[in-house]
Each structure stands twice: as C-alpha cells, then as structure tokens.
Specification:
The structure holds two protein chains of two kinds. By secondary structure, chain A is α/β, with parallel strands linked by helices. Chain A has one domain. Chain A is 28% helix and 29% strand. In chain A, helix 3 packs antiparallel against helix 4 and helix 4 runs antiparallel to helix 11. Classes of the chains: A alpha/beta, B alpha/beta. At the A-B interface, helix 12 and helix 13 of A face helix 2, strand 7 and helix 3 of B.
Chain lengths: 478, 262
C-alpha cells in the first residue's frame, strides 16, 4: 500500500512541466555556488545570502552529532540536490479519480472530506466554489494585521521583519542540521501577529495550499508581539510521503511581553516499511524564545512517522514570569527510531516550565526521551515539572529516558517523575472477556496513556490523533 | 434453582488442557442448565481456576481433547471476545489494573458492545451515566468508581464489586465467578453475594468457583462439585459443601466414591 501512496502523492505533473526542468534543478552537491544559486533563484536580498554563506562556513567546520540514541548509515551530503523548482501535483478533476486505496486510508484516519480532496490532489476550485479557502483566510487575517504566508513571500514583502528576527532564536551555527538548514533552506512559513492581536483562528499550514511543497529544508518563523497570541498547527494526520530522505527543518518562535504562542504538530511522514526499509530522517531544530515578561511558549507534538526522529522543541525562558510547555506523544513501530524531547532553559525570574512526554514503542522500535532542564543563576524562583512515561508493546522494542538537569540557582524547584509500563496479555484478556477485541483494547489503553497530551491539542486535531495512533499500532499486539 | 423445562447452556465433555505442556485439566465433564447455580470447590491447585479461564478462552491454555458446547455452539472455536459476546462472563479472581483508562469509559464501551451484539442502539454518555448509576445504587457501589481508572488502586473488595458491576451491565447467560469471595470482609461478602443473587434468574446460570463454604451461606448452590487433580471427583447438593466444611478436603480423598458428571 505504501508504495502505491508514495507514487500517487509524489508523482510529478506529467503534462506541461517539460521545458524548464533542466534549468530549475541545481546539480547535486553543496558548495558556495549552490547557495548563491538558491539565493538568486529566490531573488533574495544581499543580507540573506550572507546569512546563508555564514551558516555554510560554520557547517563546514562542524561534525554530525553522534550522541542521539539512533543508528543510520552515513548521509552523503554531496549526493543531494539542494534546489528544485516546486513540484507540481497532478490535478484530478474529482474525487472519483482518486486511488481508492488512498481514500480508504483517509477514511480510517477520519480526515475531513474537504481535506481529503486537497491531500489527494483534486483541484481545489472543484471543491470550493470560486474562492479558495486559502485566499479567504488570508483576507480575514490581513484585516487584523496578521501576516501569514510562505517564507519566500515574507522575504520579498516584509524583509525588515525577517531580517530582524531570523536566526535570533536558532543561530546559524547552533547545531549541524540547523547550520545546514540555514545555508540551504528553500521555503517554509512566516507568521507575524502584531501587538495586542489575538489571532481569531488556528493557523494551519494546510491553508497555505499554494506552498505545500516547501521541500526538505523548511524554515518557519513565528513572531507574536506584545500581548499577541496565536495557535499554530503544523502537519496533518494523513500520511505524507516524500522522495527526499533527509529532512532538516528549523522553526523559530518569538514571544514578546505578555504574548502567547501555541505550536501543535502532528507528524506522520513515511516511516519505512515493516522491515525498516526506507522512510524519512526527520532532523529538526525547534526553539521558542519567551523573550518578554509573562510570555508563554507551548509545544505540543504527536510524532508517529519518519524512520528516524531527532527533535527537541525547546523553550528559552528569558522574560520574567515566562512559561514554557512541552507536551509530547512519540509512537514508534516496526524499526522506527525516535530520540526526542525538549530543553527548558530558565533565565528569567519566576519562570515556569512543564514537560509531559509519553513514549510508546512497538515492534522492533527504539524510543528515547532526552530532555534538558537548565536553571541559570539568574532564574530565582524558577520551577520545572517533568513527567516522562514510556509504554512498551511486545517484547522486542525498547524505551530509554535521558533526563539532564542542571540547577545553578538554589531558589529553584525541579521535579521529575518517570514510569514505564507494558500492555500485557492479561490486560488484553480482560478486555476480550468483556467482548472487546485486541485492537480496540490497545486503542483505549493508548488513548488513556496519552490523554494528558491529547487534551492540549485543538479539538479536531485531537480526534484525528486518537485515530492515527490506533492506525499506526494496528496489528502490533496479539 | 433446578427447573424441569430448563435449557442446556453449557456442556463440557472429557475436557483436557495443558499449560506449558503440563496437564492441568484431566477430563472434565459438566453440564449446566439455565436457572442453575453450580459451585466448584477444591483445594488450591486442583484446577478449578484453570477450568474457569479455559472456558473463557485464555490463550495460555492448550486444549488437548474434549468438547465444550455453549447454547449448542462449539465454544472452543470462538475467540475470547466472541465467547463474551455470546454471554459467557468470567469474574476474575485478581482483576487486572488498567491505568489511564477511565472506568466509566470502559464500562460504557463494554455495555455498548453488548448492546450492538443484541442489535440495539448504543447509549450516549449521558444516557449511560443515568443507567450505570442506577445499577451502582442497587449494588451499593460508591459512585466515585466511575471517575477512577479501571481497577487501579482499588482495594480487593472494590475490585470484586467492580466485577459484579460489569456482570450487572452485561447480563451474561453464564457467569463464572472465580474466587469472588476471596479477600472480602464479611460486609463486602454480603454485598457481593446480594448482587449475584439479584442477577440470577431462570434464564441464566452461575458457576461459583470457591475454596470455602462461606460464600455458599449467601448463595445457595443447586450442585456442588469437588475438584481434585484436574478432575471432578464428586458431585452433590449444598449438603456436600457443608460436609466439606466440617471434615475438610482430605475426607473426600479417603471416600473413593467419585461420581463423575451430573
């Protein structure tokens, strides 16, 4: 099934995309010329090119991190093509033309009807009368001064904002993959909520229909000015396939005084087959700067896809009384590997952070929580609470927890709780004896296990996530 | 109660079963008709709990020979969940804890699954709440059961009451209650026994697996079977249980007068 889906979704547009192919794909390999080419193609200002080149110079001096608890063959960075024109998806005329296999998957996941159409590549104007959803929302948002669009657009239309904030949370030389991303990113999302504005709706990448294919080096920048608030949704529960194996994204969030950013992710990229062949390497740097007093950054993630997940959505709590939150569910099955967690860096006085991590491993998979809580000497009155729970399904998977705690201020309070549990035969027999089959039983146990995280998700996302987990773990028990 | 016009619910014939290649059941014959209450007694390790789990379909046991028919269907061919849906209920000796799963959601799921099995509509959460609270009132069960995780942190007595509550929701045709009296103080025993008595009628049957006579002071059995080394070595009426209580299990062993079957 996966191969069918993969082909279907990644098929290049067969008609009308012939003449420019040669000129729109950069030759494989990475050097300064490649970076200049990307910058020229995207018509970027000089400062951005310099930003990229500086990142590249740093990257050259760095080595790939080896500390994560994951294994994979060495990546040949010279074998990757770093620029290609956005891929076109085949536009189908109606839902009848969509592969029934794909529709069944959507059905199982409970993806809303209109979303299924878009995901399957049916022309949007067939579904929605004349005005696309994307345009409608964009106008609504513009009325209150919110800027929301692709990163490339923002560079052209609001260069001063991009220049002011880009790289201020994740510096170009932050880590190996962040440096790589800073050198070669092609597109992503940009979101700016001006002073005092509460964003009237959840912003979703899904509404940016025109820029869905933002490529393997995605760059996202979200800024909430004083008193602003926004809830941002990344990804969706429908399976996402890509021929690029390496994905190295960078997400930066900045919250000024009294601002509030909530960032939710559901990640369901191709995880490889049941023997561990193929699948995406998802090496992501996500960090939020709670810069202002009373500001708040909240990460919620449901990680179910990718062959390897390496990500630590973090909060730098600089403003006094600022709050950082991390709620995570990471599911691994078959041969998937995940090394994920968070960093909470307390700098300001009376800063508070909460970490709730739920790891579920099944099959032969390997699931690690890695987290850092750092209380700086300045962070008097800081308080962290961490809870890391692991659940094992079957006898061949593993779960690890690597908590790092550095407390440099005596007036701080740090709490850490951890647990490991296993879905056992006797639990499943108990359900069965009451008429409930294994699949339903596992789904109920898992959802019970994850509910502290799911309740942080926006409503319809939570429903989809629940179904997604059942789908991912199907057949792993009993 | 024994009725003349009762139907045969359960028919076990020559049942043998192993666990880890060790034979635990060595030829069980048992017939249970609607309306009847059977008590299966015996020492620890006599195989009575194994019989209960084998009838419910626990995967750890391998059936080596014999047949089990339930309402005329070959029970051994059915998955555990299908046996349950046909109306076989096992009240567990040690009900397992399921952390994180809210008891009220669990109870609603099992109840609605049973309704669907009988071609009825599901109850929505509000309707179910009214329904289950009424059942709990009758069984003298604390309403806070609903808000806790399934069996998690329950005392021994609370777990047994939760079993009886599930039995009340599912109205099984055949309830097999494995050591339901163990770990109960006198008050809890009375409440649980009352609950079981409320639920027995002429259309269903109950098998009480127990070590002691004391439960049988509250629930009067029509038949008492004594198990030893994987066999039923004696069957009688409630008087047999009293004699056992007076003389102990050794007394049966010296009598050499096993009556097989019913």
């Amino acid at each position: 099934m996966s191969a069918v889906l993969k082909n279907l979704i990644n098929q290049p547009y067969k008609h009308g995309f012939v003449t420019e192919i040669e000129s729109d794909i950069a030759p494989k390999g990475l050097n300064e010329d490649t970076i200049r080419l990307i910058s020229t193609k995207k018509n970027e200002p000089e400062w951005l090119l310099e930003f990229r080149l500086k990142a590249y110079q740093q990257w050259l001096k760095m080595t790939e991190p080896t500390w994560p608890n994951v294994k994979y063959p060495k990546i040949d960075f010279q074998a990757i093509s770093y620029y290609a024109a956005p891929k076109q998806k085949p536009k189908l005329k109606s839902m009848d033309e969509v592969d029934p296999e794909l529709l069944r998957t959507f059905e199982k996941l409970g993806v809303p009807m209109h979303e299924r159409a878009v995901l399957a590549g049916v022309a949007v104007d067939v579904i929605f009368d004349s005005v696309s959803v994307a345009t409608t929302y964009k106008h609504k948002l513009a009325e209150v001064g919110i800027i929301f669009g692709s990163f490339s657009e923002a560079v052209q239309e609001h260069p001063e904002l991009v220049k002011k904030y880009l790289g201020t949370v994740v510096p170009v030389g932050d880590n190996y993959y962040a440096a790589l991303n800073s050198a070669v990113f092609t597109d992503g999302s940009f979101c700016f909520i001006p002073k005092g504005v509460k964003c009237p709706m959840d912003l979703s990448t899904y509404f940016r229909i025109n820029t869905q294919e933002s490529g393997q080096f995605e760059r996202t920048l979200i800024i909430a000015e004083e008193g602003a608030s926004v809830s941002y949704l990344e990804g969706c529960t429908a399976p996402k396939f890509d021929t690029n194996q390496l994905h190295a994204a960078v997400v930066e969030l900045i919250a000024l005084d009294n601002a509030d950013i909530k960032y939710s992710t559901v990640q369901n990229w191709y995880a490889g087959d049941e023997n561990g062949i193929g699948g995406i390497y998802n090496f992501v740097t996500k960090r939020g700067l709670a810069k202002g007093i009373n500001s708040r950054i909240s990460w919620t993630q449901v990680e179910t896809g990718s062959a390897i997940t390496w990500k630590y959505p973090s909060c730098v709590l600089q403003g006094e009384n600022s709050v950082g939150e991390f709620y995570s569910v990471a599911v691994t099955n078959n041969y998937q590997q995940a090394d994920t967690g968070t960093k909470m860096v307390h700098i300001g006085k009376n800063t508070r952070s909460t970490i709730v991590s739920k790891g579920i491993s099944a099959g032969h998979s390997n699931n690690s929580y890695r987290g850092l809580v750092r209380i700086a000497p300045t962070a008097t009155g800081a308080h962290n609470y961490s809870q890391c729970d692991s659940m094992l399904i079957g006898n061949q998977c593993s779960a690890s927890t690597f908590p790092y705690i550095q407390v440099l201020n005596n007036g701080a309070k740090v709490e850490h709780e951890a647990s490991t549990s296993k879905i056992g035969e006797e639990q499943l027999f108990y359900f069965a004896q009451r008429g409930i089959n294994n699949e339903e039983a596992v789904s109920m146990i898992i959802n019970g296990f994850c509910k502290d995280v799911f309740q942080q998700l926006p409503m319809e996302f939570a429903v989809e996530a629940t179904q997604l987990l059942g789908f991912k773990l199907e057949g792993s028990v009993g | 109660m024994i009725y003349q016009d009762s139907e045969t619910l359960l028919e076990v014939c020559g049942l043998r079963a192993n666990v880890n290649n060790i034979e635990i059941l060595k030829g069980i014959d048992l017939v249970v008709r609607s309306g009847e209450v059977h008590a299966i007694m015996g020492t620890n390790g006599s195989g009575k709990s194994t019989l209960a789990k084998v009838l419910a379909g626990h995967v750890a046991y391998e059936i080596t020979s014999g047949t089990v028919f339930f309402k005329g269907k070959n029970l051994l061919n059915l998955a555990p969940e299908d046996r349950a849906r046909e109306g076989v209920f096992l009240g567990f000796q040690y009900p397992i804890e399921i952390p994180g799963v809210a008891n009220n959601q669990f109870l609603r799921l099992i109840y609605n699954t049973m309704r669907i099995q009988h071609g009825k509509d599901e109850l929505d959460p509000l309707e179910f709440d009214d329904f289950v609270r009424e059942k709990m009132r009758l069984l003298e069960i604390n309403p806070d059961f609903l808000d806790r995780s399934v069996n998690e942190g329950f005392s021994g007595g609370e777990k047994k009451r939760n079993e009886i509550l599930q039995m009340a929701l599912l109205s099984p045709k055949l309830a097999i209650l494995d050591e339901t009296d163990s770990g109960l103080d006198i008050d809890a025993l009375r409440v649980v026994a009352q609950g079981i008595n409320q639920l027995t009628n002429r259309d269903n049957a109950t098998i009480l697996v127990t070590h002691y006579q004391r439960l049988l002071n509250h629930i009067v059995p029509d038949y008492v079977h004594v198990m030893d080394s994987g066999r039923i070595i004696r069957t009688g009426d409630k008087e047999l249980a009293l004699e056992l209580e007076a003389h102990g299990y050794d007394w049966i062993g010296t009598e050499h007068c096993a009556i097989l079957g019913t």
